[in-house]
Each structure stands twice: as C-alpha cells, then as structure tokens.
C-alpha cells in the first residue's frame, strides 16, 4: 500500500444524495501521483456525480475529497488545482484557439507576454504549433480535443479530469485519440482521472480502473486484474465480453464447481469469493462466466486444442447459430445441443474454421480454471 | 366606450328599421348610411335611433375634436364623412387652405328653425367666396371651475397666484392663449389682421404662461382628466367650459363654474359638409331632423349645453337654465364669440405653445 | 421548350408568393415614406400654395426647443434601454438557466401580463397608482415614509418607469433565446479554468449573448423612441417627447410639412443609433435580426 502523500486525489467516504437516490455511496479511494485512473461504469452509476464532486461543481453531502493532500471542503471550482476536459470539450466558440488556451492564465493574472509564450509552448507540445489564431470551429475533432487538454494542462493542475471526451468522436478517430491521450499523459506526467462507460477505453488507457455501479466501486485494479480476476459478477459481466451461465451449483470439486442450468447443461468453473465474502456451495444459485477467447472450438473432440491443465476439461457439443465476422475479433455463436443455451466462442486468428457453416455441429471446451463462478443468490 | 355604445345602438336601430320595413310600408325612405364625425355626446343614441326609425338611414358616429376632424378631412381631402362638426372659428382657415368642405345648400335647410343671431355669427365667420360653409349646432362658453372650499378666483390670472402652486390646470391650446390675453387686458382678435403685432402679443402671453407654469399641475387634454382632477381635490381651480363646470357643480356644490371678469369666450360648434361626403339627402334630412325643437332640446340636454335651434330653449332643462343664469348674470353680453382664425396665425400660436411646454 | 416553360412557371410562382410581402413593403411602407419625404421638403408660401425648400429642417435646427426635445427623447430612450437591459438580464437568465417547465412559463407569463391590457389602460393604471391622491402616495403616508401625499406623476423618473415596464418583454425574449443557447458546460469550463462570476459574465456570457443583447436593445430603443402614450401621459406638462411633437405638428398645428420633417429626423436618429449600436457591439444586422 502506498503512503497517503503519494496520492494526488483521495476520497474519504464521499457521499452524495439526490433526494432519496444515493448517487455516490460513501466512496473511499486514492489515485496515485502521475497515474492514469479510470472510473468505468454504465450510465447512471454515479461516475459523473463523482467527477463533478472532484471538480467542485457539486458539494459532497458527507465525507471529504482531498487533492494534493488538502481537503477541498468549501473550495470553489475556480480555486481547485483541478481542471476538467468536458464531454463536449466546451471550447469557447467566441475565442480563438490561443485565447482558449490563455483563458485560465489570464484569469490568474499572468502577464500577456508570459501568457503568449506559455500558450505557444503548450500548443507545440500538443502538436498544434502556430494554431493560436485559428478559430475553434476550423479544427478537426482530434485537434479540438488537444486544445481542450492544452487549455487545462497549461495551468499545470495537480489533477486533470476527463469526462468521456472521446464519446462524441467516430470510431477511427476514437482509436487514434486513445493512443494520443495515453501519450500525452505519459509526456506530461499529470495525474489523469478519466470517466467512461466504454470498457475498451478504460482498459487501454489506464494504470488503474475503478468499476463503478450504483454509487459504489465494485472493484479497483489494473486492467489485467479486472479482466482476468473479476471480483464481482458485475465486473465480470461489464468488463470485456463474457458468456454468462446461470444455474445452481450441483457439485464442488475443490476450487472448481459444476453449475447446472435449469435446462440441465452443466459447466465447470473456478469459484470466486463474491462481494458478500461467500463462495458458492452445493445448491447455491450461481453464475459462471467464460470469456469467448478462453473457449476453444473443434469439429471433433480430438481437434480441441486446450492448454495443459490440472484437470481434464469437459467437452460440450453445439450447433452453429451464426457467424460473427469482425476481423481479429471474429467469433461464432453456438447453441449447446441439448439445452439450446447460447455460447460464444472466439475464432482463432489463424483463419481456421473460417469455413464454418450455420447449423454445423461442433464441439467446444474451456479450461475450468479460467472460468469464474460467483454465488448470486440464496441457498436453495 | 361611448363610440362603441353609440355604434351598437345605431346598429340595433338599423336592424329594427330593417325589420319595420316589411311591416310598415309607406315610411319615407331615404336609404343608406350617414357618417358623422363629431364630439362626444353630440349624437345621443336615442336620437340616432329615432332618426333611423323615421328615415331608414343608419347613423355612424366617430368621436373626435376640432384638430383631429380637420386633420382627418385634410388627409382624405374631405372624404370619409358626410357631416363634421368643428367650431365656427376653425372653418374659414382650413377651408381656404385645404378646401375640405362643400357649401351648404340653404334651400334644403329649414333655416327658420335656427336662432338668427347664431346663424349671423356663423355667416360672418364661415363664409368663403360668398358661400356659406356651416350652420350652428350647439354653443357654450368657456370660463373657470373653482372649488370654493379651497380657494376663490375671479379671473384667469388668479390661476397663477402663488397660493395655487400646482393646484390649477389649463389646456395647452389656443383658447387658453386667447383667454389669458383678455385677462391681461388685450384684445387678440383685434390683431388678427396684423401677424407681426399678433406674434408680439402671443410672445407676451407665452411669457406670462411660462411664469405661471409651476402653478399648473398638468395641461389637460380631455374633459374627464380635468373633472377627475377637480373631484379628487388635486386641483383647486381650472379653466373649463360651462357644461363640464356645471356637471361638477351638480355633483359637488362646493365646485362652481364662473365666468371670468374679463369675459367668457363663447364657442359655437356647427354642421359642416366634408367636400367628398356622399349621402347629401341624408345630410339635410339629419340637419332638419335635429333642428326640430324637441330633438334639439334632447341633444342639448345630452351635451349639457345650449342648442342653436330656435324652438329648443323653452324646452331646455330648467336646472341648466338656472345654472346659466347664475354663471352669466348678464346673459349673452358676457359671452365673446371667437372670430374666424385667418390662416397662418395658428403657426404663431403653435410656436408659443411649444415654448410653454418646453419651459422648465 | 418544356424546361423553359417550367422555369417560367416557377418564376411566376415565386413572384406570386412574394407578392403579398412586396405589396406590403411597397404600398404600406415605402410609398407613404416617400410621400412624407416629399412633404418634408415643402414650405407653405400662401393659402394652398407650396414650394420646395429646406425650411422645415432649418426650423428644427434654428429653434432650440425642437432640438432640445429631440436630444432629451434620445437620452431618456437610451437610459430606459439601459435600465431595461439591467432588469431583463437577470430575469432572462433565471428563465433560461435556473428554472424549467412550469416556473419558466410562469415567469414568461409575468413578463407578458402588461400586454394583456392596452397601452392606454396600462398607462392609466400607472396614473391611478402614482397620482397624488393615488394608491402609492397613500401607502407611503400610512407607512409614515412621507408626511403628506407626494405627487409621483409628471417626472422623468415616472416616464422611465413606464417605459421600462412596457419594454421589458421585448428585452427578455431575445435575451432568453440567446442565453438559452449558451451551453452550460462553457460556463462551468470557465469557472473550472479559474474564472469568477464577473469574468465569466464578461468573457463568456455577454459575448455569447451579444446578438440577443443588441437585438433587445435595438427593439427597446426603437419602441421607447417611438412611444407616445406612456411618455405624454406619465410625463404630464413636462413630457416633451419627440413623437408628441410630431403628433402636434400633424394634428393640432396642421403643419404636415414640419411633422414630416420631424418624422424623418426621428427615423434618421433611430437608424443612426442602431448603426452605432451594431458598430460598438461588433454585430451584424442580419445576425441580430434573426435573434429578435
């Protein structure tokens, strides 16, 4: 655990209610200096409220938020060493690019000459040299985003907050801007707090990701931890693609359990301690999560190319329901033969099985150690 | 409001007339509409209704004042109305200048129903190129109203007394200039032919009124504004014409209408025929109808003044006659009639009036 | 051939569609103004005789009275416009940014109330309220603020009150529409970058609302400049409003020539003011008009 002084941002039981709805439910967390921290969650999970609380637009109902080790209680947004990149970027349309970037400096009373040189240097650093006199509507989406970031970073804030800035961009540009954002953050070394509902953005960009749901963090960890060791069914379902198989535990084999669906399909997975600290036992309602790329496919059991494992993996039979071609992310949607349960398997990148036909009979399998199972309800 | 009521009454009357057409054959029919531009109260609704019943002619009334009547007729070059009722002194100038009226055909008028001395006054003042352009309708006099509980006044200059600061009112119009001229012992009418001397006199009167301005609470534009001022007690004395003064006196005995010592100025409103009026048959029917003694008396009572019709006087409200006798103990001798205004004089007066208005 | 006749029909249709507007412009605006323009360059030389001259305009400049009234009207109109802007801005801001739905509609309705009655009734209402024997002086006496009822009518301040009251809506509407289109995140961004209430207003809100402000000011200025009833009734014996001068010249003096000249001078003044206003605020006429 890091010492508190290493945190640029620390929330201590931060609480915000709107009427009877608790938007942010006594959250405590810390963001390490110089890191890229993402808050990932579906819309309505409270992430925007949390961000606005950090920025100072919303006063918490309880708890405290500390920035750079100082309590921000009663500190107005214009007095916090935090700056924000807004969802629609909020560039000032009545000003040129240079004036936009100089805005905060001017508010601090920085002299014109110093302002100009800082603006010039900042625009160069974000790859827009000489753009001072351009109008903001002459810029492309990516350039506008760089101006919005430059406008904030020129003030050298302790913390830069980003409110889904990529949301409005088209896919191609979004992919490029992801890389650019990461590079900018690395180059400036400023702590970024980034909120998004897009798990791919969070995974690609972040050092740490907090998965937020209903006002609480479900899990905070590195992208790898979230992906491979989800702490809750919500994280397992929300981060990355996953097959979810719901049923009851029919047998326990050490760390592995069998989950039987009501239709009678049985899959084997590794048990996980759920958010309530319980591991599923026999008869418990449980959900198993299997990532499509964990499963392997074959026309026959002999073809299945499973990684070596302690226990042999059960083999399932299925019928091709549809083919989902998406280049490197291609997958096939199967139905388990007996129970008609849906299951998605990633196609190998080698192009093997590209000739699969709908209704073709196949077999599939996955290593139970790489599938996870959570207790989801009461004992039954 | 008045205009609306009158118009609605006229419309109802017209409807009644139309209905009676089928039922009562043999009623004299001079069809059509008669459009009159006149002062408030000058065409009582019941009189118009009776006229419509007798003749089938609808009466449309538009309310106005001297200046507006002339301006409207000037704008249309004498069209839009069949009868207008300006004051007798305001006919000659506009007629010479704009030619907005047509001569009266006296053969179609029952002239013997008109008071001869009033007809003579009109003949003197409204004859252009040997032709007569107006007939007398109603007359009255201008004097002062005073709240006797608050103060005492005898002449117009008393309105400028220092103890009446902010408590008096006059109209910012030419009658005020004339009245103050007489009160100052001058005779503006004698200078009508000499614009230079007239201009000098007006300057003198303007200066007097400017000196008096702090005494005027406001310059009133219409009768009701003044009546309200007197009723509320905001005004203690003001220039006013007789009917308004008597009306106040009837409501509140403390308020009296008095003729100023320097003499009351008499006004006389007329019938005139706009140059491009249409329904001439209806016009003469109306004139003769309203000259009938009992009709004329009803009109006079409605206005609160005196009719120019000969037979109307004995029928006039005795209370009104008593008030007249009280205000004008010497009868007509106290009344001075306005002579016709030669063109150009009103420009001189206008400049003086503007100066009074602008003075601080 | 077919195509040619098609274009012809289309062009004919265009003219037909434009016809009402053209008739209105030509017949009801342009022609009367041309007539007035000609009239203003005439001088009466004798009964019913006229000659072309600049006498009417000379009178205006030679007689300090008219010039004074003219300047006074312009100055009071400017002050009224400024006060209206100052009062309307918070109202428009409240409607556009702080309230929603019902409350906004209610606030709009409050601004509309003065227009439910005619200007005459409205002005007479003010007179009843403010006259010496009226409501407000009575209240002031009973509250012990003044010993005797004070006449509140017939003062310049009274005229201003009446003018501002009448004009408020015409300022609120364009302000509202320009403020409403201001993205809240711009304001937040400005705060976030260190702005305070005043600098955000100056650097973000006002520049954004400039077309609306200019439009509102132009409309209100023109309305007050051309106002007749409020100024003359509430102003009383000292009202001295230029439109009153024009009315007097036309109606009571029968001096159409002078009245026409005054009318043109007023038109000139308002055009000049609009032009100055646009120059000062750096707005384009078309932009501003599309806002109002």
What brief labels describe this structure?
heterotrimer, B: 360 residues, D-Maltodextrin-Binding Protein, domain 2, 2 domains, globular, disordered N terminus, C: 292 residues, mainly alpha, MetI-like fold, 13 helices, 3% strand
Write the layout of secondary structure elements.
The complex is a heterotrimer of chains A (380), B (360) and C (292).
Chain A: E1 7-18, E2 21-32, E3 36-40, H1 47-55, E4 62-67, E5 70-71, E6 82-85, H2 97-107, H3 112-125, H4 141-153, E7 159-163, H5 171-188, E8 191-196, H6 199-205, E9 208-213, E10 216-221, H7 223-228, H8 233-238, E11 243-253, E12 256-260, E13 266-271, E14 284-290, E15 296-298, E16 315-324, E17 331-336, E18 342-346, E19 361-365, E20 372-379
Parallel strand pairs in A: 3-8, 3-9, 6-7, 7-8, 13-20
Antiparallel strand pairs in A: 1-2, 1-4, 4-5, 9-10, 11-12, 11-14, 12-13, 14-20, 15-19, 16-17, 16-19, 17-18
Helix pairs in contact in A: 2-3, 2-4, 3-4
Chain B: H1 2-23, E1 33-38, H2 45-55, E2 58-63, H3 66-75, E3 83-84, H4 92-98, E4 101-102, H5 116-125, E5 127-128, E6 131-132, E7 135-147, E8 168-170, H6 174-183, H7 195-212, E9 216-219, H8 223-232, E10 237-241, H9 242-251, E11 255-258, E12 264-271, E13 273-274, H10 280-291, H11 293-303, E14 306-307, H12 318-327, E15 335-337, H13 345-358
Parallel strand pairs in B: 1-2, 1-3, 8-9, 8-10, 12-15
Antiparallel strand pairs in B: 4-13, 5-6, 7-10, 7-11, 7-12, 7-14
Helix pairs in contact in B: 1-2, 7-13
Chain C: H1 2-40, E1 42-46, E2 49-52, H2 55-62, H3 64-98, H4 101-112, H5 119-130, H6 135-142, H7 156-180, H8 184-192, H9 197-225, H10 229-235, H11 242-252, H12 256-281, H13 285-291
Antiparallel strand pairs in C: 1-2
């Amino acid at each position: 655990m890091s010492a508190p002084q290493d945190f640029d941002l620390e929330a201590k039981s931060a609480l915000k209610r709107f009427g009877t709805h608790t938007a942010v439910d006594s959250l405590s967390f810390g963001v390490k200096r110089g890191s890229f921290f993402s808050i990932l969650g579906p819309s309505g999970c409270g992430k925007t409220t949390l961000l606005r609380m950090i920025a100072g637009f919303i006063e918490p109902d309880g708890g405290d938020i500390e920035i750079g080790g100082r309590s921000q209680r009663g500190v107005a947004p214009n007095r916090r060493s935090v700056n924000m990149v807004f969802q629609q970027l909020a560039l000032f349309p009545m000003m040129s690019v240079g004036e936009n970037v100089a805005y905060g400096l001017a508010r601090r009373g920085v002299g014109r000459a110093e302002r100009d040189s800082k603006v010039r240097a900042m625009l160069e650093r974000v790859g827009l040299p000489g753009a001072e006199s351009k109008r903001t509507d002459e810029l492309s989406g990516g350039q506008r985003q760089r101006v919005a970031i430059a406008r904030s970073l020129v003030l050298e804030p302790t913390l830069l907050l980003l409110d889904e800035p990529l949301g409005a961009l088209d896919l191609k540009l979004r992919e490029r801007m992801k890389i650019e954002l990461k590079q900018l953050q690395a180059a400036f070394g400023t702590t970024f707090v980034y909120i998004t509902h897009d798990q791919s953005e969070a995974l690609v960009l972040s050092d740490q990701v907090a998965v937020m749901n209903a006002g609480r963090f479900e899990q905070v960890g590195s992208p790898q931890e979230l992906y491979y060791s989800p702490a809750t069914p919500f994280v397992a379902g929300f981060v990355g693609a996953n097959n979810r198989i719901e049923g009851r535990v029919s047998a326990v084999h050490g760390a592995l359990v069998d989950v039987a669906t009501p239709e009678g399909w049985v899959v084997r997975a590794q048990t996980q301690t759920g958010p309530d600290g319980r591991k599923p036992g026999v008869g418990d309602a449980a959900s198993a999560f299997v990532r499509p790329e964990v499963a392997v496919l074959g026309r026959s059991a002999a073809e299945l190319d499973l990684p070596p494992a302690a226990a042999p993996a059960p083999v399932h039979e299925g019928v091709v329901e549809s083919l989902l071609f998406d280049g490197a992310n291609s997958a096939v949607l199967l139905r388990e033969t007996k129970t008609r349960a849906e299951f998605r398997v990633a196609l190998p990148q080698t192009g093997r099985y590209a000739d699969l036909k709908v209704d073709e009979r196949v077999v599939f399998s996955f290593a139970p150690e790489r599938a996870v199972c959570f207790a989801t309800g009461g004992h039954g | 409001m008045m205009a609306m009521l009158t118009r609605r009454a006229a419309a109802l009357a017209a409807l009644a007339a139309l209905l009676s057409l089928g039922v009562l054959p043999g009623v004299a029919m001079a069809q059509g509409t008669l459009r009159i531009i006149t002062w408030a109260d000058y065409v009582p609704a019941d009189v118009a209704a009776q006229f419509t019943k007798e003749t089938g002619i609808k009466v449309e009334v538009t309310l106005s004042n001297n200046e507006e009547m002339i301006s409207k007729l000037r704008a249309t070059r004498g069209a839009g109305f069949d009868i207008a009722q300006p004051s007798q002194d305001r006919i000659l100038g506009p007629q010479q200048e704009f030619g907005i009226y047509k001569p009266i055909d006296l053969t179609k008028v029952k002239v013997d129903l008109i008071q001869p001395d009033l007809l003579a006054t009109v003949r003197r003042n409204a004859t252009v190129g040997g032709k007569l352009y107006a007939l007398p309708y109603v007359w009255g006099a201008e004097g002062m109203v005073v709240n006797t509980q608050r103060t005492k006044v005898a002449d117009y200059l008393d309105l400028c007394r220092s103890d009446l600061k902010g408590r008096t009112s006059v109209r910012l119009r030419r009658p005020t200039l004339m009245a103050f001229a007489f009160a100052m012992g001058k005779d503006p009418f004698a200078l009508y032919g000499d614009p230079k001397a007239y201009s000098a006199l007006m300057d003198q009167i303007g200066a007097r009124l400017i000196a008096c301005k702090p005494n005027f609470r406001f310059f009133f534009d219409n009768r009701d504004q003044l009546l309200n001022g007197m009723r509320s007690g905001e005004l203690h004395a003001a220039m006013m014409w007789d009917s308004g003064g008597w009306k106040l006196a009837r409501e509140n005995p403390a308020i009296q209408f008095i003729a100023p010592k320097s003499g009351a100025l008499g006004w006389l409103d007329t019938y005139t025929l706009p140059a491009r009026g249409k329904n001439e048959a209806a016009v003469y029917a109306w004139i003769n109808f309203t000259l009938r003694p009992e009709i004329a008396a009803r009109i006079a009572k409605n206005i609160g003044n005196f009719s120019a019709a000969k037979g109307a006087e004995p029928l006039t409200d005795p209370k009104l006659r008593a008030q007249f006798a009280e205000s004008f103990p010497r009868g007509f001798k106290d009344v001075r009639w306005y002579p016709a205004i030669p063109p150009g004089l009103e420009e001189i007066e206008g400049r003086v009036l503007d100066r009074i208005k602008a003075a601080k | 051939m077919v195509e040619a006749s098609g274009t012809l029909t289309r062009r004919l249709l265009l003219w037909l569609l434009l016809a009402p507007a053209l008739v209105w412009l030509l017949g009801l605006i342009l022609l009367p103004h041309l007539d007035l323009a000609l009239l203003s360059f005439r001088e009466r030389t004798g009964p019913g005789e006229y000659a072309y001259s600049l006498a009417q305009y000379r009178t205006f400049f030679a007689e300090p009275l008219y010039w004074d009234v003219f300047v006074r009207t312009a100055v009071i109109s400017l002050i009224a416009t400024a006060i209206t802007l100052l009062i309307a801005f918070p109202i428009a801001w409240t409607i556009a940014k702080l309230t929603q739905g019902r409350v906004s509609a209610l606030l709009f309705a409050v601004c509309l109330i003065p227009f439910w009655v005619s200007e005459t009734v409205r002005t007479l209402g003010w007179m009843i309220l403010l006259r010496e024997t009226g409501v407000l002086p009575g209240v002031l006496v009973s509250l012990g603020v003044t010993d005797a009822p004070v006449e509140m009518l017939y003062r310049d301040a009274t005229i201003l009150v009446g003018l501002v009251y009448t004009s408020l809506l015409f300022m609120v509407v364009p302000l509202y529409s320009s403020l409403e289109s201001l993205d809240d995140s711009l304001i937040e961004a400005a705060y976030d970058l260190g702005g305070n209430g005043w600098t955000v207003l100056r650097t973000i809100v006002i520049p954004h609302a400039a077309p609306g402000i200019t439009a509102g000011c132009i409309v209100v200025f023109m309305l007050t400049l051309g106002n007749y009833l409020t100024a003359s009734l509430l102003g009383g014996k000292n009202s001295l409003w230029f439109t009153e001068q024009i009315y007097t010249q036309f109606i009571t003096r029968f001096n159409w020539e002078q009245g026409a000249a005054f009318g043109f001078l007023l038109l000139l003044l308002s055009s000049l003011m609009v032009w100055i206003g646009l120059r000062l605020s750096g707005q384009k006429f078309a932009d501003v008009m599309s806002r109002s």
